[in-house]
């Protein structure tokens, strides 16, 4: 059987050398998807033209034409990114029939490099959630144990990468939505510096803090993907110039002499002892590689989750206001309705978590309450950013577990939103401060994965990837049992 | 005492593209929903792309209205549901979290009165709603998003107006100023709109919306003042509310109270980073900014000795003052100004007439020179102007073709003068006793020459022949 488990870099090399026929690989990938999707539900839709596209690419390379650097690679895309003429649902009933009329910037960049979009990945509705249980089309399952949640909101992306339904994936990370499922499914999940990747075509949830990023099998693959999709975009005014940095070059520079701060506030009350042990092991491995590790406290972290939910609910309330079903959406005729009664009826198609957050989002920034909630949350954001900037004066990198707990069973926490919210404590800091952060698969305990998170200062993505690669080299994990 | 404050919306019609995308700012020539893209139609995933030119133009307006301009400006979201608003929020500006609007406080003078400007902000225009069908039962609502995202500048004033007349004078001055700056053509349908806040005797403020034109604004203010005065006279409290101008019945009507309770949940628009407006950018804009109407007027008076009235008329109209600037020389400035204000403005009083006119600045210059050198009389120059507007022929060609040349040949003119003296013995006697009456005889010579006689020469010859 063809090796579907190879990394992106290996795949591209083999495919470009002609050792792998794209048609064969895509065919085998589709077979794999066919055989495991019943158990995993990583995808919301599959690209039915993937095989045709594969044949075209095989012809292209045979005719001696130049081929793109992502040649023939099957990539899954979280279903909140627009691919022209394809359904983009955000795992919501609200966008059941929405066909995107344009390509997101990341999509057009990967298209140019001859990638094949194998399917749209499942997610929590509008990226709100951390288990994928809030998908309106049913949850994804953890490939390590299908009774367990795969994390979220980019759960489908993480599942598809770690269970070999694709070679790499793009997810989005608003408060941990790439890193959390990467940690739960043993994939590499990377949220770059805010502004490094264009968000044009990413359906907004909380636009001031979210980023697109890769989910891959290796850190090198993430660096490779970043090379292809990073950079300034005239369609997104928040993008920053990265001077065409090559993130793959010198990735094995090591971390000798680097100073790493251990964020104590992310390892306190409520942390699973297994996660704590794994983190300590990771720290001693880093020290073994010549890094100097020392504890650091970010006091604002204890308010970060509250601030995160206040800010994201406010932005979500505004970003999701456009779904009035007048111009696109789902089948629900407007005739006979007055505008306000129509939209309030049409908007009942949002799921419970989205509805909950929009109700919060209508309240926390409202006149008379903004001072107590929204503006206070913005102050926490400012203070947290100040604190982490101070920390980066002393440290090159920061370390913490990606998620303070192990994956849990599907349905176990769905009725307790607050305890779900609190699981985000280790991931939201990177979003609120705009810093890059990455989760590396580190350990399997009782058959469930634990990820370790590294953070770096803004635009120090290259250093972050070098450190993550160094740590990754110290780890060997068993194969996913599916 | 009556107080009126205004909120004026002005589209930056001279821009090429919309505020956040590359669709045309001039949406007027398109069929319904043809001038739209994912950004201005609010398609999921699209992001606003700020038109930097719009910010510059708005900054110019702020500077021209003597407003403060901050170093950095920010955009905010105003959240509310309305069918003409594709995103169900409007990207606009605010000053409640510090001075982040494109313009802060300023003033503008109308005569001796100063009107304070509260703030100037850049924002996007919504789409347009068209209601069709006669009865409310079969009425359908159509939405055209072509206008959505058109760059708007909102100018908010303090309640400094005391009469609707002052409001109208202010709007005329503002409209001239915007035209002069080259940022907008206020004459385009819907390009300039205003809401008014009216209160009497220090009572509650009533906002009037939905006023379609400046003319109606004056009428609506009148109506609202009368309405409030009559309530006040009868000791009936005036409710603080929003009222709509009913164009058909020419009255203001109370809006549903729901609209007043709207909470816009303003917060920073994260998709548009703060825009820095460095002193260098402001200096650059100042250099590009056309001279203000006031400064133009004063220059015309002091440099060319043009009368205050003529200078006022000339400077407040960009089209004519541009024409003047191009046509005039040190020596003929007064003459050019006179031709424009006494003749041309009457001949080219509509946009169509201006557009079809073949007159150029060169024509004007040559015509003024011809008058000054006595080649053509002021009287005949009117005929020449008519012909030039129609044909675009050169001044000399028109003068010779229409035989408008001055009779400045002394022997020829003398014959005519002698004839007039012979025909008008009574007038000659009168002129001898009262020199002022000689003008009657000059007029007769003009009549005989169809206005072509050189006036100075005629006068001199008449005096000589009569012996005064």
Question: Could you characterize what this model shows?
Answer:
The complex is a heterodimer of chains A (482) and B (468). Chain A has a domain of 281 residues: Amidase signature (AS) domain (Amidase signature (AS) enzymes, Alpha-Beta Complex). Chain A is built from 15 helices and eleven strands. Chain A has an eleven-stranded mixed beta sheet with strand order 1-3-2-4-6-5-10-11-9-7-8, with helices on both faces. In chain A, helix 2 packs antiparallel against helix 3, helix 5 packs parallel to helix 6 and helix 7 packs antiparallel against helix 15. Chain A starts with 7 loop residues before the first helix and ends in a 10-residue tail after the last helix. Chain B has 468 residues and is an alpha+beta fold. Helices cover 41% and strands 18% of the residues of chain B. Chain B starts with a strand and ends with a helix. Chains A and B meet through helix 9 and helix 10 of A and strand 14 of B.
Q: Main sheet of chain A: which strands, in order across?
A: 1-3-2-4-6-5-10-11-9-7-8
Number of H/I helices of chain A:
15
* CATH fold group of the domain at 8-251 and 436-472 in chain A: Amidase signature (AS) enzymes
The poorly predicted ranges of chain A are none
Unreliable stretches of chain B, pLDDT < 50, 5 or more residues? Answer: none
Q: pLDDT average of chain A, as an integer?
A: 96
In CATH terms, the superfamily of the domain at 8-251 and 436-472 in chain A is Amidase signature (AS) domain
In terms of quaternary structure, the protein is heterodimer
Features:
heterodimer; A: 482 residues; alpha/beta; 11 strands; 13% strand; globular; B: 468 residues; alpha+beta; Arc Repressor Mutant, subunit A; 8-stranded mixed beta sheet; 3-stranded antiparallel beta sheet; 15 strands; 41% helix
Q: How do you describe this structure in short?
A:
The complex is a heterodimer of chains A (482) and B (468). With 482 residues, chain A is of the alpha/beta class.
